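Why show two proteins at once? Because comparison is the fastest way to build intuition. When a single record is shown, students tend to memorize it. When two are placed side by side, the eye starts asking what differs. So, the first record is below.
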Amino acid sequence: MAESPAQGRKGVPATPQLRLDELLDGLQAQVEQVRATRDRVHTLLDAVLSIGTDLDLDVVLRRITESAVALVDAQYGALGVLGDEGKIRQFITVGMDESTIEAIGHYPDGQGILGLLIKEPEPLRLPDLGRHPDSVGFPAGHPPMTTFLGAPVRVRDQVFGNLYLTDKRGGAEFDDDDEAVLRTLAAAAGVAIDNARLYEDTRRREQWLAASSELTRSLLSGTDTGQVLHQITATVRALSGADLVTLAVPFDGGDELVVEAAEGEGAKQVHGLVLPATTLAAKVYHSNQRVSSSALSQEQQAGGGSAARIDLGPGFLLPLGGPEHVRGVLQVANMAGGTEFTNATMTMISGFADQAALALEIAEHRREAEHLLVLSDRDRIARDLHDLAIQRLFASGLTLNSVLGRVSDRPQVAERVQRVVDDLDDTIKTVRGTIYALRERDRAESGGGLRGNILAETDQAATVLGFTPALRMTGLLDTDVPDSHAEQLLAVLREALSNAARHAHATAVEVTAETDGSRLRLRVADNGRGIDPAVTRRSGLDNLRERATDLGGSFTLTPNEPTGTLAEWTVPLPPQAQASLMS
């Protein structure tokens, strides 16, 4: 009897064999699934390690986006960082080349599906994002996208941003596993971002403290205030990473400001720019309130300003100093299209500005204290000269006068003694003039009398000459000389000292200003090259001569001995001045 085809060898049925093959195939599929899950977990762990190995925030954000694309096998991915007002302020993309990004233009601000994830920060999966009722479509140049998976990234329970993934490769939809993996990556990303931000804040605080210490040291060591202002703007730019930083200070005590220091792109265009009272900087100065904007050049600023000359985008302005004494206004800005500044950055710069204002105030008080000390020393020196030197010189002169009567029979000796007495008299006048100069120097700084103004002119000329001219003043210059004559004398002195510096190349200059109540005379003698006969155009000397003739006086320019030039300007005083002297 033959075997039935349904029976196996030796009469064993074939059905158990088929069932065993099915079980083996199912087991093999489960093994493949476990292996795929294992590989995906390893990939996830590698991604977590990758995003946690760097502390640079920009690098961390880029790695998070790249890891998300790789884990869910998406074609496109992006990470939108949220700003203070819930809008996207930074957008990192993966999967698009530079030409595509340029064709799209500016990154999204949080409308449509992206905005939905911002409003409701929960994972979101869509088979076709174009069919969702909140979809607003794509801008021109944007590649077509279908499937969508999004998840929020939280940092300490605060939504930092959102991950957006589109177009799973192979045309499949994103599944539960993709969502679970993305949520796990987002949680790890929050920790990595928090660490990077803490590191960045610590590093910036160290820079801030170092910059504050250097600024204080510079101010207290006597560095010029203008140079310190430039140092402040350079430091603020380094701390904030801004494209342009300007510092405006009050201009001539009015409502206007002037940009005293500028650092960054377009700094030369705005340095020295006068800002009217209607500009944003002037408003910050008077209100003592910080102002921020996402587009400074689009703000209403009547009369213009730096934002009117340069196309500025995000930025902020803050007062330099406390409410009682605002010293200026700092403007920190990026160019149009640049990133906005975070609250942490603005707070840090505000703290540095307060520190800088305090350092400026301390340095100013120190300079005032040093000035008072100098004035005290001048008073002491003047007192000593008057009480000691003049009295002794005067006593010596009286003693020599008494000797004259005893040597009247010896003419040569009497002549020598008389010459010494005359020299002592001139010395006493010189010392008295020095005493007046010491006591009037502080008056010169506050716009004092003629003596103080003459002293101020000679001090100012020292910066051009390279040395301080010798100065001698005799007579009641402050009381006997009318204002009109005093102004002319100062103009003549200014021109004469300028000629000595520019043309004569002198190494010594002696200035004498004196009055006897009836005439006013100014003599400026130098040891320079003298008068060049080849020079025929002397408009400056003609002006000096006209100033003398207009007042009924004269001006002479003669050679000085042994070298140099002697300029002498003499004018009579008006009768009312002489009458007041006699009364």
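Second record. Ask yourself what differs from the first in the token line.
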Amino acid sequence: MFGKILIANRGEIACRVIRSARKMGIKTVAVYSSADAGAQHVRMADEAVFLGPPPAAESYLRVDKILEAIKATGAEAVHPGYGFLSERASFAKALADEGVAFIGPPVRAIEAMGDKIESKKLAAEAGVSTVPGMFDLIEGPDHAAKIASEIGYPVMIKASAGGGGKGMRIAWNDAEAREGFELSRKEAQSSFGDDRIFIEKFVQRPRHIEIQLLGDQHGNIVYLNERECSIQRRNQKVVEEAPSPFLDPETRKAMGEQAVALARAVGYYSAGTVECIVDPDKNFYFLEMNTRLQVEHPVTELITGVDLVEEMIRVAAGEKLRFEQKDVKLNGWAVESRLYAEDPYRNFLPSVGRLKRYRPPQEGKSVDGSLVRNDTGVEEGGEVSIYYDPMIAKLCTWAPTRLKAVDAMQTALDSFELEGLGHNIPFLQAVMLNGKFRSGDLSTAFIAEEFPEGFHGVTPAPEELRALAEAAAAMHLIRERRAVKIEGGLRGHERHLPEDWVVAIGGQRFPLKLTGGADGHFRVRHADGQESGFALDWLPGRSLAHLRPDSGAEAIIKVEPKGEGFRLRRRGADLLAATRSLRADQLAALMIEKPAPDFSRFLLCPMPGLLTSLRVAEGEEVQEGQALASVEAMKMENVLRAEKKAVVKSVKAKVGESLAVDQIILEFE
């Protein structure tokens, strides 16, 4: 077994590999860029080696720098994680030339399966069902439009060396095919250093289901069942689960055996994944094989009990698999939510900044038997930059059944405190609440169909809004009683607090009478005569409140003081609550609302990023929907378009400039 391994990656996957290596008694070496000098993976490793500046092309993708780090530290093997160099055959070969083990598949398999064009041809020759498409190189935008038209719209434009949703575009007509080709090629070059593009038929409303493989260097290959990865946005997975709620045992077996046969054809060993799309009739089609560890591997580990990272290390060291296909079982259900640094209220645009608060839920088993796991590479006070993937953490839950695992995920998201930048926790909570998701009625079109106008928060049901109003009133009373006690102690007098209040929340008013609270238990009477009781575990300064109705389930509420009241967040709902006396409520109704500023004459940068292109000039007339500029953030190219017909009055930014959120790019007449 190896004595020391180097992890040629960063963030949560580097931390994940370090944990397994530490369990096996293996020392670890981290590598880092200047942007990651204080990162968690650097501190966790036994040693760390500096690579270079923040851009991946100048640090994490520098094979020569990685080789220097290996020689300097005496590492015997390298785990590539995912992304970066993980599927680059030339990197695996360079390690072999230096006598260093690659904790991954053989070079031949990476070359055969890592190239999306060649893997399609190989799969077709092997009799594997594949999606119709053009698997030769596309020469340019016009060629792309011609091929797409021949295949028949819609089509998927994909990078040959792609992965993780990078370099992928759906086109519905010739114009989108031309533009999608250019954007995919640019993104592919930036992310993978390979701008080759191919086009295939886009199968509408399929499920994305993948088979996890594990093989050794002695010819043994097993499949560890499947993962459902259909909840995607911009071809980037958001929620995954294992097993799939759609597959029956016969289809699962057929997919697994076909995946194994494909792997055996290329002499595969280590962990790998065969991705498929599955139509409503359970017909499945090969998409690609990822010759690396997948982001979503934890859900497979949770239902099988197999530590995939440990097995990869053992295989690289020449050991045989310690189990056979008959030993692989399905135990319960696991769900993974990817927490991204992105603002769901601004069309999921990337967000950067400091993690002012980062408090994940407690890991391990709960009282109801469910389990929480959180794979992360950040800590409170850390920075999320524009240079790398926006994923902050992978939150996973396990339970004996699917619905219990989903409910456990909802509770875990409720208690996950994340402040300082935009994040997608509210959106993830909305997905967990969605009826189609809870029933397992999924497809890759789920987000587009269930959130056609984007995400604008969740509107609580009437009884939930009433409960939040009660909680807001109780928090206000707790805060006021503390103030009265302080005033009485300092000034020798006490202020009388009323029992009658009006809570303004969610565009509604809730007149109510609130009593009790000395022991944490309150009684409330509403204007309609309804009475109830509840306990509230909260004190001023706390960011979480636990509301326990006398009848009903406990609710976790995220609390933030805001003006005269509180900002309350609960399961995708984000509300301001103001609790006022009867007289203050009468006066509040007379207040004039300040109008929002008008920015319709400006093109504002919607995210922090690099301005990579300007497609218009001063004095030019633009049409609605016309592409105006492109901004690159977190390895994704974002096209900014005109919302209406206008004339460019002035250009306020330059290509190559780093822009802040809402910085002006163009001004219109």
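One difference worth noting in the second protein: The chain has five domains: 4-103, 132-201, 231-450, 462-588, 602-668.
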